[in-house]
């Protein structure tokens, strides 16, 4: 029974941190791509912080339980960029950069919560959970940023260098029909059918993976 309660507590601590970290990460990819002239993520409804638009159910469960998972990939189209290789590199770097910012925020929040006095058993228990969430949020985001900077497809690091991003920028995989999707569980590629709501788009999708 004690093990079940410990597992349940860990899951409840991880759940809000995972939802925020993955949602902000994927939103950052789409937002930067949109600012660079690519409307693909917006057309697919991905310019939002709504976790339901970004969370892959299985990836979320694995992240919360096993500290390893993934989110839905964000579709982008490098042909909209004035400088495709640079645009692809900036878009790829946006996700890890966002997680680093969130990691610093989580660290600051963690230190602030440690200063809050706990004058009752209820406050002590409540603040204990809040401190655990802030600590996990910080570590998760830092881990997510570092892991995704590894220069191995399909992680973001494989496209963050403008000198080597040409293959990504000239990808000819139509996202309205098929998009290359590689799972960080095994690194193998597969295809997923995704109808485009407005126009035919060709480009790359970012998949977020982390081991924390």
Number of H/I helices: 7
Q: State the oligomer.
A: single chain
Strand arrangement, major sheet: 1-6
What does the radius of gyration come to? 18 Å
Q: What's the pLDDT, averaged over the residues?
A: 78
| Tertiary shape | elongated
**Terminus-to-terminus distance:** 26 Å
**How would you sum up the major sheet?**
2 strands, antiparallel
Walk me through this protein's architecture:
By secondary structure, this protein is mainly alpha-helical. The chain has 7 helices and 6 strands. The chain has helices at 2-35, 40-43, 51-54, 57-66, 84-114, 121-148, 166-169, and strands at residues 68-70, 74-76, 178-182, 189-193, 204-206, 209-211. The protein has a two-stranded antiparallel ribbon with strand order 1-6. Helix 5 packs antiparallel against helix 6 (121-148). It is elongated, with a radius of gyration of 18 Å. Mean pLDDT is 78; it is low at 167-203.
Please outline what is shown here.
It contains 7 helices and 6 strands, in the order H-H-H-H-E-E-H-H-H-E-E-E-E. The protein is mostly helical. The protein has a two-stranded antiparallel sheet with strand order 1-6. The chain has a two-stranded antiparallel ribbon with strand order 2-5.
